[in-house]
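Two proteins were folded this term; both appear here.
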Amino acid sequence: MEGERRAPRARSCGLPAGGAPAPSPGVDAPLPGRSGPPALPRAEVLDLDEDEDDLEVFSKDASLMDMNSFSPMMPTSPLSMINQVKFEDEPDLKDLFITVDEPESHVTTIETFITYRIITKTSRGEFDSSEFEVRRRYQDFLWLKGKLEEAHPTLIIPPLPEKFIVKGMVERFNDDFIETRRKALHKFLNRIADHPTLTFNEDFKVFLTAQAWELSSHKKQGPGLLSRMGQTVRAVAMSMRGVKSRPEEFMEMNNFIEIFSQKINLIDKISQRIYKEEREYSDEMKEYGPIHVLWSASEEDLVDTLKGVASCIDQCCKATEKRMSGLSEALLPVVHEYVLYSEMLMGVMKRRDQIQAELDSKVEALTYKKADTDLLTEEIGKLEDKVECANNALKADWERWKHNMQNDIKSAFTDMAEENIHYYEQGFQHENRTRGLNEQKIKSGSGSCVPAISTLPFKTSTKKHAILFFFFFSSF
C-alpha cells in the first residue's frame, strides 16, 4: 500500500447505527425536483421594523412556488390545508416513561440553584425496579449530554436549553423561566428515551436511577483532567487539519444543515417579533373596554350599545389571551428547539470529520514512513472500522431526525392554524352580536351605531405564519 489508501472492506460495527429502519418512500426520501440547495434570501434583506416588507421577501421568493410535496393548486379552505400536513399516528411501543416536575430552589453559602424531580416508570428488565424518583440540577443534565456525545459522537443528541437567556428574561429564578426550562428538560429526557440507541446508554440509566451521592461517585469514574485535556487538544488539531475529501453524501448533508440553520434562525426571529407585536396589540385592546364603559355614563342614548361594545372587547381579549398562550407554548418552543438542533448538527459533522481526519493522517503517515508499517496498517484497519461505524450511525440517525423535524414543525404550524381558526370564529361571533345590537337600536330609532372592535390586525399575523410555514418547507 505505497502512496494510496486501501479500499474499505465491509465490516460489522457491532454498534446500532441509529437504530432507525430505512425510510419509507414518500416520507424521508428526497423531494422531487430539488437537485441542489435552494436559493435562500440573505438575512440582511429582512428589516423587521417594516412588517409587510419582511414577509414580502418570502412571498416573492421563487423557491416558494415549488412546494414539493404540496400541490401547486393549494385549496383555499383552511381545514383542508390542515389535513394535508398531518402525519399518520405511529403505534405506541414505549416501555420507558419519564416526567420532570416540581422544581425546587436550593440556597447554599456558595451558590443558589434549582433541582427538578425526575420520575421514571419502566417495564425493562435491566432496571432494578419499575419506578424511580431522583432530583437533578442543570449541571447533571450537562454531564449526561457530554457522556452521550462521548459514547456516540455521530448520533444526533437532543439539545439542552441554554444555561442563560439574556434576551427577554434576565432573571434566572423567574417563575416563567423555571417553567420554560422544566418543559425543555422534560422534552430532552423523553427524546433520549425515544431514541433507539441512546435509550440503552448506561450513563442514561444511572442518571435516571442513582441517588445524588451515587451519581457523584459515578461521575468520578470517568477519565482524569489530563486525559480529557489531551483528547481536546487532539480533537482541535484534527479539526484544524481538516478533511481532504469528504464523501459526497456528507457534503450534501452539510449543505442541508447550513440552509436549515439559516432558515430556522430567521423563522425563530420573526416568530418572536410576531408574538411581541401581538402582545402589544392585546395590551392596548384591553384599555378600550373600560373606556367604552366610562363613555356610556355620559351618553344616555348609547348606554346599551357602548356596554355591548365593551363586552365584545372583553370577550375578544380573553380569546386573544388564549391564542397567545397557544403560540407561546406550541410554536415558539418548537422553533427554538430546532435552532439549538442546528447547532448540535454542526457539532456532529465536526466530530465525524475529526474521525475521518485521523484516518487520513494515518494513511498519509504510512505513505511516507518505511518503519513500523505493520503497526500503522493495523491502526488504519481499526480506524477504517471506526469511520465506517460513525458514517453508518450518522446516516441512519439523520433520516430519523429529518422525519421527526418535519413532523414537529408541521404539527406546530398546524396547531397554530387551528388556534387561529377557533380565535376568528369566536371574534366573528362577538362582532356579529354587537353589530346586531347596533342594528336593532338604529331600526327602533333609539340610538346611534358605534362600531365594534375589529380583529383585522390578527389576519396579517396569520398570513405571516402561513408564509413562514411554506418558506421553511419549500426546500425540505
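Next, the second protein.
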Amino acid sequence: MNVSLRPWQVIKVAPFALSSYATPYGHQVIISELLWVWLPGGVLMGILGWHRWRIGDEKRAR
C-alpha cells in the first residue's frame, strides 16, 4: 500500500536488514540517497567552504 500525500516519492525508503541492501531495491535506495542527500549536501558544503576561504583571504589582505 503506497500512502503518500504527494504524487512522487523523492527518497526511497531504506530496508531495515543489512542484507536487503544487496538486492536491486537496496541499490535503488543507495543511489536515491546519494542523489538527494549526499550530492546536494556536498555541493552546499563546498560552496560554504569556498565562501569562508574567500572571506579569509579578504581579511588577510587588509
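Residues 24-61 form the longest helix (38 residues). The two ends are 62 Å apart (CA to CA). These notes refer to the second protein only.
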